[in-house]
Amino acid sequence: MTHVSSPSAPRNVVVGVAGGIAAYKACHIVRAFKEAGDNVRVVPTESALKFVGKATFEALSGNPVSTTVFDAVDSVQHVKVGQEADLIVIAPATADLMARVVAGRGDDLLAATLLVATCPVVIAPAMHTEMWFNPATVANVATLRQRGITVIEPAHGRLTGKDTGPGRLPDPEQIVDLANAVHAGARLPQDLAGKKVLITAGGTHEHIDPVRFIGNSSSGRQGFALGEIAAQRGAHVSIVAGNAAELPTPAGAEIVPVVSTQDMFDAVQERAGQSDFIVMAAAVADFTPASQATSKLKKGSDSDEDALSTISLVENPDILATTVKRREAGELDSNPVIVGFAAETGDEHTTALEYARKKLQKKGCDLLMCNEVGMGKVFGQKHNEGWILDAHGGVVDVEHGSKIEVAAQIWDAALAYREV
Hints:
Elements: E1 12-17, H1 25-35, E2 39-44, H2 54-61, H3 77-84, E3 87-93, H4 95-103, H5 109-116, E4 121-125, H6 129-133, H7 135-146, E5 150-151, E6 155-158, E7 164-168, H8 172-184, E8 196-202, E9 206-207, E10 213-214, H9 221-232, E11 236-242, E12 254-258, H10 261-271, E13 277-280, E14 287-289, H11 305-309, E15 313-315, H12 319-328, E16 337-344, H13 352-363, E17 367-372, E18 383-390, E19 395-402, H14 403-419
Parallel strand pairs: 1-2, 1-3, 3-4, 4-5, 8-11, 8-13, 11-12, 13-16, 16-17
Antiparallel strand pairs: 6-7, 9-10, 14-15, 17-18, 18-19
């Protein structure tokens, strides 16, 4: 099991920038690392400076910017920058830059820095779709990954001009989160290539009337983080998202928006039979109002007063338990690995972990990620922690870390379980 944790000490981070229209997004990446307390050195190519000026990168990073191996020769800068780096992130990376890295070129400061670096290197490509799928680029990406360099899958969306498709630079927040996870030890091998992954995320809303609803504080961050890691590891990802916050879409993922638990139940059952892995990370409501008013209930009116003070509830369908039962009955052709989530608080008699063990046994899923939730814990936060339990009795501690790091551990556990 890969151990990952969030960075706790300032690091020397090199942000490489190649010459593409997405170079402006590198400014947000530099700022994010700086705000986290890192020492950031921007190393652009000459072409990159045609899109974003040297002064901008120097102002944001607080360090001098150079593109050539002939600057600061007395301090052997062309070697020193790479030797001292704790993490190198190249965003955007063009097809040309990746080709030069594969060839081992050292004709500018960025290429030379990569030649001497021994730290984790994360490359975020950005280019037109035809360039991304060109056999030369495909081969270069495969070579870089074989050499231990992490190459992030590009996003799908609007490109330069009227073109749309895969090749767009991912959101800066996604790049920073993935880079931090890689630095902390997360792996992004293509071990989910060709697999179909179904994930639930966010919280469901059970409407009382057109205005009011019963809900929870789930942001959907953990579910989307699971989708991000799965996509980066090669999977075809579908996320059934219940009222999730505005989060960046994982590379190539299908987002299925739903509102209520019943909506989520229907969407999952429709797709479950074609999925190799199903991860139920959503915070669903166990109960829903027995009836929903068609117009807003008015506070204080004689006819509506009882309706607002007393709400009759009925039980929602159990998405996780139903999916497990369908698998056991042979109704799911793909025989998926099923992962559940348990948001527990514990009490004076029973710990959150003990409640999770009972839930795992009751639901019958293969793995269960248990979060100890509460005020200011997990829901809506960028970090998570807890335990991963499996049906064989195993328990793995998940230490406090970003949700993208926790997602990497969950996928490690799910793939290991499938191999048992």
